Amino acid sequence: MKNINQFTDDEGKELVKMARMAVTEYIKNDSKINDPEFNLKFNFESGVFVTINKKKSLRGCIGYPLPFKKLSDGLIDAAISAATEDPRFNPLDVDELDQIVFEITVLTLPVKINVKDSNEYLSMIKIGRDGLIAENAYTSGLLLPQVPIEQGWNVKEFLEHTCKKAGLDKESWKDKTTKISRFEGIIFKEESPGGKIVRESTNDFL
Asked: Which residue of 15, 57, 64, 78 has the fewest C-beta atoms within 10 A of its own C-beta?
């Protein structure tokens, strides 16, 4: 697994461009793109999420929090799924391709936050650095590091919304049966549909 801080801007641009190409190929031709050079370059395990936005509103977001897929495969699969399988939205239409922007988040390995008292979470989690996973024996939910920044949440609100994403009561983060894990991410995204691709590390918000 590659350290996220080792990703270059050019590599980030390749990831975002491939996400767009993969979705375009799938929607237009109902086929999965295969690029041997891309596969070889990103032939290492990594967690990754693909977010699709339309006019600054979410249009789809799917990913893999754990590095059980090669980044090349995970990126393409997540991009296609974000465009066509996010249960919150209808599948993307070909006419929308020039209206959407792609955002790629490459993740570190999630690590459980060990606390003796749930209030310790409030000082151990940092907005702008950490993404969160809330889970118990039956369900789990994840929110990316950029989400609380975009929503203007504090740490307590971030914990509550992560629990709700898992289908749990918002106060479940206080329950000892709920496991809270954190991870970090590095973001590459289009500034406009098919436009300039920029790097946005969440650490910039600290």
From this structure: 57
